[in-house]
Design brief:
Length: 446
């Protein structure tokens, strides 16, 4: 309760938005070229990674070879790649755009930076990429040319895009092309990141006034108007994914059947990610339409989802229960909801989460006994009774100490989705779904 609420800065700079559209190679030769280009990126990643690891080992053993510990940069890795490209035997790399293939080194530099980042302890060292277990993809990092419904692939030519339903007049910054399908029916998608100026008609403006508090719980989020936003239910898919993972573990490495299982597994994971993306987009849009300012708890999702296993000397308690909760927290997409709210809402304020679920939103009395059950809040001092999540959301809103009034807060028993939330504008649903603001640089790589 001591930390001051902090908020995102107001928006005056142009924003970036990413759209996912189909990319049609047009003929088999073009499709093959795209796969080969992605293969060249994978080749660059693997070779540069191997060279870097060797150089690092040399430094560890002998020192003074110009390479120290710490994170390599895009510049140093890129130089390594340029050398590799000009080496004898690698002439075939000249069939592909230098900038595109070199960009694999950018992802590697990002992966190394994350690996050395003390705030991201679970991020491992960059790994080699196996042909059949990596989604083929590449990035056009600059000089993106889009015209007449087509995308220009450097050193190859124009390829048709699916309909661009938004941002058609905006400047494209980067494009990430990915093959998202089984190899038998290759389907390519382009993730186009646009620079969108302030006040562009395709960007929905946030609600003009008001504030709303949101309590994010396992499986659902409740806002201070009383509306309950259900998160995604993925138990059926989770079970399927587990089954395929077990099957894959039994299959022989390098076998055709294992490869097939890998494809099915990737397909399921993609589907789940898509569903989660859609759900968090819908929820964040509804919340951003409700009020200008959104108040959230400053949850450290990473430390909350850390394993409860503990150490050998000091074994953790409730390991099983905690791991189940971890999965549920991750599945509920809290981080994604917050990330989407930061660019959809007018302002996001984060407050200290301590005791928001135990304090009375009417008189401020804070006690564990205020919660007779998981769902019910009943104040021991003033007798106020409410839905526990709703009470917490009202507390979260109050904690921000905002000058302007809340949106219909303190309405006892305000039911979900009643009059509190304005109807979804019809025009918006006809347009394409905008993807998250940034292409996840560093996470995905060719
Ligand atoms: Zn009370």
């Amino acid at each position: 309760m001591t930390s001051k609420p902090h908020s995102t800065e107001p928006k005056s700079r142009p924003v970036t938005r990413t759209l996912r559209v189909r990319l049609y190679p047009g003929n088999a030769a073009n499709g093959l070229y795209l796969e080969q280009l992605a293969g060249a990126c994978r080749f660059a990643w693997n070779r540069v990674l191997a060279e870097h690891q060797t150089a690092y080992r040399m430094w560890r053993s002998f020192g003074k070879l110009g390479l120290g510990p710490g994170s390599p940069t895009f510049f140093t890795l890129g130089k390594r790649f340029t050398k590799l490209r000009n080496a004898p035997g690698n002439e075939w790399l000249h069939d592909y755009s230098h900038a595109i293939v070199k960009y694999a080194c950018k992802y590697m530099a990002d992966a190394y930076a994350a690996f050395f980042d003390p705030d991201r302890p679970d991020h491992g060292c960059p790994q080699f990429k196996a042909k059949y277990y990596t989604e083929p993809g590449f990035t056009i990092p600059s000089n993106v040319r889009i015209g007449d419904g087509s995308l220009y692939i450097p050193k190859r030519g124009w390829m048709r895009l699916g309909p661009l339903r938004r941002y058609a007049d905006c400047k494209p910054l980067t494009v990430r092309c990915k093959q998202e399908s089984e190899r038998r029916q290759p389907t390519w998608y382009a993730y186009i990141t646009f620079e969108v100026p302030v006040g562009h008609p395709d960007v929905c403006p946030p609600a003009g006034h008001g504030a709303v508090g949101v309590d994010r719980n396992v499986g659902q989020a409740t806002d201070s108007t009383g509306a309950v936003h259900s998160m995604l239910e993925t138990t059926v898919e989770d079970a399927k994914i587990k089954r395929y993972q077990r099957r894959m573990a039994r299959q022989q490495k390098g076998s055709k059947r294992r490869r097939g299982t890998g494809g099915k597994l990737r397909k399921l994971n993609r589907k789940q990610a898509r569903r989660r993306d859609t759900t968090t987009h819908q929820i964040s849009r509804k919340i951003a339409d409700t009020a200008h300012t959104v108040v959230l708890e400053d949850l450290d999702t990473k430390s909350m989802t850390k394993s409860a296993k503990g150490t050998v000397e000091n074994p953790g308690r409730n390991v099983k229960a905690k791991s189940g909760l971890n999965r549920a927290i991750l599945a509920s997409g809290w981080g994604q909801l917050e990330q989407k709210l930061t660019y959809k809402a007018g302002q996001v304020v984060k407050v200290d989460p301590a005791y928001t679920s135990q304090a009375c939103s009417r008189c401020g009395h804070t006690a564990k006994s205020n919660r007779p059950s998981q769902a019910v809040f009943a104040c021991g001092a003033c007798g106020f009774q409410a839905n526990a999540d709703h009470n917490a959301a009202v507390n979260i809103l109050a904690r921000a100490g905002l000058p302007h009034g809340p949106v219909q807060a303190h309405v006892p028993g305000a039911s979900a989705r009643g009059g509190a939330i304005p109807p979804w504008p019809a025009a918006r649903s006809a347009k394409g779904t905008p993807m998250s603001r940034e292409p996840e640089l560093g996470r995905e790589s060719p």
